[in-house]
Amino acid sequence: MTAPVGLVAVDHVQLAAPPGSEDALRTFYADALGMTEIPKPPVLAARGGCWFAAGPVQLHLGIEEDFRAAKKAHPGLRVTGIEAYAARLESHGVHVTWDDNLPGHRRFYAHDPVGNRLEFLEPDA
Hints:
The protein is α/β, with parallel strands linked by helices. The protein has helices at residues 22-32, 42-45, 82-91; strands at 13-17, 36-38, 50-54, 57-63, 76-78, 97-99, 105-111, 117-123.
């Protein structure tokens, strides 16, 4: 019997960052977002960048020489306790922008220190 074929999950989301931004990324993703930096395989670590995880969620930040932050594209990150999570980010100096245009959800947007847009959302109770 053969195993079914098909997508089963998103393994990670890759975002780009400019050269030399790793320290700022670590401060944002580890300190402000509360993620844990995970080691990159040595062959990939030589390229720079950094990877982060929180539970099953992984965000990989890769270095791009002619980096330009995406203005519209973004990962949508589901959170619990969205009000407290937004307050956590604000306490780290991160500007959050609330958006009430998604029925059945509370959500806000924020940008990482290199300009990548991130969406944070929680379904209504």
